[in-house]
User: What shape does this take?
Amino acid sequence: ENLQINYPSAIEDFTSAIEIYPDYIYAYWRRGDVKFDLEDYQGALTDYLRCNFNNVDSYYKIALTRESVKDYLEAIKEYDRIIEINSEDVVALRKRACLKSNMNDFAGSLIDNHLADDIIQKRNSDPLNLLL
Assistant: This one.
């Protein structure tokens, strides 16, 4: 059985929760997810920025939303934050490389792709990774 999400109702519910409890960050987070699914990227971004948890998951959501509105420079800044937390985050490196390429920063893109390749090669050559 497929679950159908009633997006307008979900937005109403999260908005009601926010009106009653304006500091209920989870409601902003989830409402942002619904808005993102509805391709209301600016609305999603507003909600995500309201509840930025200063962690990798939060930075990813903000970066992906900024990408969706083609705000590549700000998306790159979010990926920078992720990479500051974990310099071996291959996904963030690849996403940042792609955005740099979109902005014609081919040298920067190449550097990020090489960093990601080096990390992958290092992981593949480490026998302990087979245990993970």
